[in-house]
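In this supplementary section we document a worked example of the pipeline. Step one takes a protein sequence of length 260 as its only input; no multiple sequence alignment statistics are reported here. Step two produces a three-dimensional model, which step three serialises into structure tokens for compact storage. The input and output of this example are shown verbatim.
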Amino acid sequence: MNNPQPITLNGQPIAGDKSPLICTPLVGRTREDILAELTVVIPKRPDVLEWRVDFFKQIGDTAAVIAAASAIKKEANGVPLLFTRRSIIEGGEVITLTEAQVIALYQAVCASGCVDLIDYEMANDMAHIGQIRDAAKTNGVQLVLSFHNFSCTPEPGAIAAKFLQAEQLGADVAKVAVMPKDLDDVLTLLAATRSASKTLRIPLISMAMGPLGAVTRLVGGVFGSSLTFAVGASSSAPGQIPIEDIRLVLTVLQQSMQGR
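The serialised model returned by step three reads:
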């Protein structure tokens, strides 16, 4: 079994040679809620934590965001933290911040040293992407550039173009998530992932969402996806599977493909 490209921090693969990584979301509305989530999630040994800050009630208070990020890092026992504001047009929560304020928040969080990776969407203005990229590079934070389509699965060439666009824009990791309408769409996503994994110079993450796409969260690593999202305490997207089930299936699959 060929492992996907590893996602790295400081030049070293996250979780050693483990692949794909398992990332669990934190979606608490308050700092107390998030810390309560962590007491459930950390014992389940995720490889990465994603803090979906668009769920956070105090997102408009930069000091409160940084304090919460610091608290997460303290309780995470060394598990890397991915910081994500998901926009409403790509499945996120409604927030009151302007995009300029979101960028300022990302810049402050990157400079704080409390996060290891950030996710920002390729649908945003190119100038804004440049500002986010500069903040990440300056502070040694890994940049995930992402694309989400909640209405359909684009044709293979369009998916390939999104992976390539992320690389060309200076991402450290490319992410594409789509919504399948049938199993043919699921196959389209997996085939596009496999193709991109052969040519892209950076790691990629892919998934088909919803019930039909659940299989991609289990077998995506076989086709080149470097990370899968799993429920630790609460879900952040349709089709996410509990981390215990993901880990069991990945173990069986990997052992079987290695002939053990």
